[in-house]
Design brief:
With 280 residues, this protein is an alpha+beta fold. The chain has six helices and ten strands, in the order ααααββββββαββββα.
């Protein structure tokens, strides 16, 4: 009986041990499966979607590059050599245009071709009660020649134009027939003119030729030595002169233009002789 009980006890122990072993294996299998599922879930919650970050970075890069490109474009336009040259050319042209206008203004006082104002100068034909032609002794640098003068009628005055000269009463202009660049402008003055004012105006006008010098007595051309005022200025381009010629009734503003050239020696004696015959 005792032997049977001991065997039963041993058998119970063995069965209990087997059951415990079986439970342990099942537990290990479950444990090994659960960590794999947990790891996958955890990893999915922390992974960054690869399409999002590069897109944001590209947009930011494009925005930055675009700003730089716009800035570069502005700088390029500002530093454009062609634009700078055009601007400088325009300024230069302006500067050059201003200098030309000033010189032209000074010269225009000498080269006056405005029509005569008959209402201020008198009737045409005044002083024309002299012979239609007359001979004059004209002194040149080398000799004294006899020259025929033809009576010319201006508005309120008349004079003899020496052979080789022609006169336009509408512009008060006496010029060399062969070369009109040589000329004199005759302008009758209104009563009440002032000598000092005329002198200042003449000096201003003659600056286009050079520094004006007032000539008196034998320093002035012989034929016009009786002029109340005579100024002259010259440079490489030629000579400009001003004379105030007076008669008992009125005064005459005379401007003379003598370009440099071989015709100067021919024109000067003829125009001086002609102007000395002014009468009203």
């Amino acid at each position: 009986m005792k032997t049977y009980n001991r065997a039963a006890s041993l058998l119970g122990v063995l069965l209990l041990s087997g059951a415990l072993a079986a439970c342990g294996n099942e537990s290990d299998t479950a444990s090994q499966s659960e960590p794999a599922d947990t790891t996958a879930t955890s990893d999915n919650s922390t992974i960054e979607e690869p399409a999002t970050a590069p897109a944001d970075e590209e947009a930011a890069a494009n925005e930055e590059n675009g700003g730089d490109t716009a800035a570069d474009s502005t700088d390029a336009a500002t530093d454009d050599p062609a634009a700078t040259e055009e601007e400088e050319s325009s300024d230069t042209a302006a500067g050059d245009t201003a200098a030309t206008d000033e010189a032209s203004s000074a010269t225009a006082t000498i080269d006056q071709e405005d029509p005569a104002d008959a209402s201020k100068q008198g009737d045409k034909g005044a002083g024309a009660d002299r012979p239609k032609t007359e001979n004059f002794e004209v002194a040149t640098a080398d000799s004294t020649d006899s020259v025929t003068g033809k009576l010319q009628e201006g508005y309120g005055y008349a004079f003899y134009a020496m052979e080789g000269l022609e006169f336009d009463a509408e512009t008060n202009r006496l010029s060399m027939t062969a070369n009109p660049d040589y000329y004199a402008i005759i302008t009758p003055l209104e009563k009440g003119y002032a000598l000092a004012t005329l002198r200042n105006e003449a000096k201003t006008a003659l600056k286009a030729y050079g520094a004006p010098v007032e000539l008196k007595g034998d320093k002035a051309p012989a034929a016009l030595s009786a002029s109340r005022l005579f100024l002259s200025a010259e440079n490489e381009a030629g000579t400009g002169q001003f004379a105030l010629w007076e008669t008992p009734a009125k005064g005459y503003d005379i401007k003379i233009n003598i370009p440099a050239g071989e015709d100067a020696e021919t024109f000067a004696p003829l125009v001086y002789a002609s102007l000395s015959t002014l009468a009203d």
